[in-house]
Write a structure and sequence with these properties.
Layout: H1 3-71, H2 75-92, H3 100-120, E1 123-126, E2 138-145, E3 153-158, E4 160-163, E5 166-169, E6 171-177
Parallel strand pairs: 2-6
Antiparallel strand pairs: 1-4, 3-6, 4-5
Helix pairs in contact: 2-3
């Protein structure tokens, strides 16, 4: 074998070694890339599960908050009514020596406390005497002849009440009717 032939066999051997090492290198880098991708996928799954659990916790807490809001919605109004109840109980606990004038003054103060509580709760009174009849706010009990224009509220039997522009109770009223013609 000549030196040239020996060299070409050697070169071929080196080339084969280089190819094998390159294949092993590709396998190693592919294995590293696969391991990295698997680790990244596991991290993403963990992050997704944590985010999903957090969303579920927020949803549950929101439901609890809504339930508490419904359950205790009138708490402030109830607190405002307690002094009114106390005043009424004190009035009933008085003996016969208290004058009617003193009882009246106490009742006036109690009514003012109740009106104040209604105001803080956005409860408004509907007292429509002399106003045009509104079927959304008033309930007509009867129609009567009157000097007032037709469909005008003549008498209020029972005041109505609104809560934030929603009717709690319509006012019970008598309405003027158009004079009957004929005769």
């Amino acid at each position: 074998m000549t030196a040239h032939e020996h060299r070409s066999e050697s070169d071929q051997f080196d080339d084969n070694l280089d190819a094998n090492e390159a294949t092993r290198g590709d396998d190693a880098s592919a294995g590293n890339a696969l391991a990295k991708a698997v680790a990244e996928a596991a991290e993403m799954k963990d992050a997704w599960l944590r985010a999903r659990a957090e969303v579920e916790n927020v949803r549950r807490q929101g439901q609890v908050d809504v339930a508490k809001a419904h359950k205790y919605a009138i708490e402030k109004f109830a607190e405002d009514l307690l002094p009114v109840k106390d005043a009424l109980e004190q009035a009933l606990a008085t003996d016969e020596t208290v004058s009617a004038q003193t009882l009246r003054a106490g009742s006036d103060l109690t009514l003012k406390a109740l009106t104040s509580a209604f105001g803080r709760a956005a409860i408004r009174e509907v007292d429509p005497v002399g106003e045009k009849f509104d079927p959304h706010l008033h309930q007509a009990m009867q129609a009567v002849d009157s000097d007032l224009p037709p469909n005008t509220v003549v008498t209020v039997y029972q005041k109505g009440y609104l809560l934030n522009d929603r009717v709690l109770r319509p006012a019970l009223v008598t309405v003027a009717k158009a004079p009957e013609r004929g005769g």
